[in-house]
Amino acid sequence: MPVVDASVVVDWVAPDADAELPALTALERLAADDAELLAPRLLMEEVANALLTGVRRERWSGADADKARGLLRELPVRLIDEPRDLDRAWDLARRYDNHPVYDLVYVAVAERQRTQLITADSTLRRRLSDFDWLVAPEQILR
Question: How much of the chain, in percent, has pLDDT values that exceed 90?
Answer without folding.
Answer: 80
